[in-house]
Design goal:
With 95 residues, the chain is an all-alpha fold. It has helices at residues 12-31, 38-47, 52-58, 63-71, 77-87. Helix 1 runs antiparallel to helix 2 and helix 1 packs across helix 5. The chain starts with 11 loop residues before the first helix and ends in an 8-residue tail after the last helix.
Amino acid sequence: MPSVDPFDPGNDMWAAVENSYWRTVARTVDVVFHANAGLAWQFRQRLFDVSPLERALYLHDDPLYVAASLAGSPVTEDHIRAFSIRVLNKPEHGQ
């Protein structure tokens, strides 16, 4: 299985993975928690000051729970359902 080296600054694959993750967090903040998506981008900006390995650790956290933390909201069943349908584009059960 190929790996992505977060220490290689020229690694386009790493940048794509990181960008995709934070787009998902920002969309979740917006469409699931109805908060300002800028919260995700502001937090990501602060992470540029930490090591690549520390930034990589965030990519292991579920975007739903990172977004909830940024929005200052607990995660409810409604949030999980909205995340699944509106962010992950999964159909509701029975459809």
